[in-house]
Design a protein that fits this description.
Elements (H helix, E strand, L loop, with lengths): L17 E2 L3 H5 L1 H11 L2 E5 L5 E5 L2 H9 L3 E2 L10 H10 L7 H5 L9 H12 L2 H6 L1 H14 L10 E2 H6 L1 H11 L6 H13 L3 H24 L5 H7 L10 H31 L2 H9 L4 H12 L8 E3 L3 E3 L2 E3 L4 E4 L1 H4 L38 H18 L4 E2 L21 E3 L4
Helix pairs in contact: 6-13, 8-10, 8-18, 10-11, 10-14, 11-12, 11-14, 12-14, 14-16, 14-18, 16-18
The structure holds protoporphyrin IX containing FE (HEM).
The site of protoporphyrin IX containing FE (HEM) has 25 residues, from helix 14 and helix 18.
InterPro entries: Cyt_P450 (IPR001128), Cyt_P450_B (IPR002397), Cyt_P450_CS (IPR017972), Cyt_P450_sf (IPR036396)
Pfam family, one: p450
Protein name: Cytochrome P450
Length: 429
């Protein structure tokens, strides 16, 4: 939006483009994108660098974009965009050129037939059985972190749940799943944090370099002496025609799991805990009936999920959508935050109600995306959420916010709903 424009996104219906860094939109994405859904469900917007893009906010159109193969995840699928141009975008983010391939060609950044192949290979290793078999370890890791919380209480009597529980839980679970030895986990926690926070390019670059080398060494060692972790399964997986993941693809896949499964799950735990503490009636219901945990996690994903919008989808041709023409080459962001509060789809959408019913897969909410790129780790994330919420409130029945609700600080990053800190009082235990 230009300096003279009304900062209210409702004004962005034709003449003014939506600015993703608009402070109002960052502070309260539910109201801002909700207004857009009413007034301009397919709206012109400006990317962070000022280039044109589109945001889509209605449930039906969000799904339509994610179902339409003419919208590509890989900009290379757009006629006229070459790999130099794509690499430039990534290098601008602070990556060294030689590591661009490890980040640029993830399963999430690919289109068929590459996506079909990668997704099929990884799905053979990342199975439902592997995820459910991990549950006792998720319980143990959760219990250990919860036991350690009193040791992190500061002078003001509060403990930051984000730093001491929400972040360490998912990265430790990923380490466990991949098969990272206990002694190396502190390193992974540090690299993970530096990679996902993406705030300091130099540290991100060195974390990436160190992590790639570490994964490469792990692969070499597993080839000598195989075990039965996810990494072994990824190394071993082979299609009938002999196709398998190359070393570069293996490294990229492990990095993807760390990046995709870390900050997201951490913020589901942070946002969900804050939501339950500020809705004591809902927390009470969960406490009375822990069997509600799977539904509660779905509802928290809908109501305050960490991902507000998907990765950009690139129009591979001119596409008509919701009365607008999206020109070839322009990116579209499918706003999960709009779809998940769409009154056409959910009764009383702004109300948090952990007793709403959801189907397990193909649920009406789009917190884990939709279509062929639907989150690979959704079952794992849901499992972590269920264990985290249930055990946290069980272990600390007197848990409470150590700050007023309106003092909680949300990180102003487009596309992400995340608390900087979540200070809590553990209460009498
Ligand atoms: C894809 C959300 C946890 C791995 C996605 C997408 C969303 C999402 C919205 C689709 C993005 C798009 O279409 O642009 C979440 C949330 C999580 C979570 C909210 C936690 C609460 C995880 C975990 C893992 C994971 C724990 C793995 C350890 C992936 C992968 C993809 C993906 C590999 C790409 C799938 C593909 O392109 O086929 N996730 N995710 N995610 N997620 Fe998750």
């Amino acid at each position: 939006m230009s300096a003279s424009a009304d900062p209210d996104p409702a004004a962005a219906t034709g003449t003014d483009d939506v600015q993703l860094t608009d402070p109002d939109l960052l502070a309260d994405p539910y109201t801002g994108f909700g207004r857009l859904r009413e007034t301009a469900p397919v709206a012109r917007a400006r990317n962070l660098d000022g280039s044109p893009m589109w945001v889509v906010t209605r449930h039906d159109e969000v799904r339509a974009v994610l179902d339409d193969p003419r919208f590509a995840n890989n900009p290379l699928s757009v006629p006229g965009i070459d790999s130099d141009k794509r690499a430039e975008l990534l290098v601008n983010m602070g990556l060294s050129e030689e590591y661009v391939p490890y980040i640029a060609d993830t399963v999430l950044d690919s289109d068929p037939p590459d996506h079909t192949r990668l997704r099929k290979l990884v799905s053979r290793a990342f199975t439902v059985r592997r995820v459910s078999g991990l549950r006792p370890r998720v319980e143990q890791i959760t219990a250990d972190l919860l036991d350690a919380l009193p040791g992190h209480v500061g002078d003001d009597g509060s403990v930051d749940l984000i730093e001491h529980f929400a972040y360490p839980l998912p990265i430790t679970v990923i380490c466990e799943m991949v098969g990272v030895p206990e002694a190396d986990r502190p390193l992974w926690r540090r690299w993970g944090a530096e990679l996902v926070r993406m705030q300091e390019p130099d540290r991100m670059r060195s974390a990436l370099v160190e992590m790639v080398e570490h994964i490469r060494a792990m692969i070499a060692q597993r080839r000598e002496a195989p075990g039965d972790d996810l990494l072994d399964a990824l190394i071993a997986v082979r299609e009938e025609d002999g196709d398998r993941l190359t070393e570069k693809e293996l490294i990229t896949m492990v990095l993807t799991l760390v990046i995709a499964g870390h900050e997201t799950t951490a913020n589901l735990i942070g946002n969900g805990t804050a939501a339950l503490l500020t809705h004591p009636d809902q927390l009470e219901r969960l406490r009375e009936d822990p069997e509600l945990a799977p539904r509660a996690v779905h509802e928290l994903m809908r109501w305050c999920g960490p991902i507000l919008g998907t990765r950009p989808r690139w129009a591979t041709e001119d596409i008509d959508l919701g009365g607008q023409r999206i020109p070839q080459g322009e990116p579209v962001m499918a706003m999960i935050v709009g779809a998940n509060r769409d009154p056409e789809r959910f009764d009383d959408p702004d109300r948090l109600d952990i007793t709403r019913t959801y189907e397990t897969r193909g649920e009406q909410h789009t917190g884990f995306g939709h279509g062929m790129h639907y989150c690979l780790g959704a079952a794992l994330a849901r499992q972590e959420g269920e264990v985290a919420f249930t055990r946290l409130f069980e272990r600390y029945p007197g848990l409470g916010l150590a700050a007023a609700e309106d003092e909680l600080e949300w990180i102003p990053r487009p596309g992400l709903r995340a608390l900087r800190r979540l200070p809590l009082r553990l209460g009498g235990v």
